[in-house]
Amino acid sequence: MEKRLSELKPGEKGIILRVEGSGATKRRILDMGLVRGTEIKVIRRAPLGDPVEFLLKGYNLSLRKSEGDNVYVRVVEEGEK
Question: Strand, helix or coil at 12?
Fold first, then answer.
């Protein structure tokens, strides 16, 4: 199932399929390591829902919901790789 990164709930994992957007925003997201094929997990959301903390490539990253809207992932079910 394909979802936007911003739609994942805490504890869910996904594999990045693509990054949309243009210019500096897309470049910034790619530079942070959000590239196709990367596994990413939602750690927690801030109390008001923004920003969201993720774990990828061994480090924690916080993104705003608007940034997560540009990243599409395939949801990984528990036990699936």
Answer: coil
pLDDT at 81 over 80: no
- pLDDT score at 57: 92
What is the sign of the dihedral through the CA atoms of 73, 15, 8 and 70?
Answer: negative
* pLDDT given for residue 50 in this prediction: 87
Q: Model-level pTM?
A: 0.87
Question: Which residue bears the tokens 């993720």?
Answer: 54
Pick the CATH number of 2-76 from 2.30.30.90, 3.30.110.170, 3.40.50.720, 2.30.180.10: 2.30.30.90
**Token duo for residue 6:** 């911003």
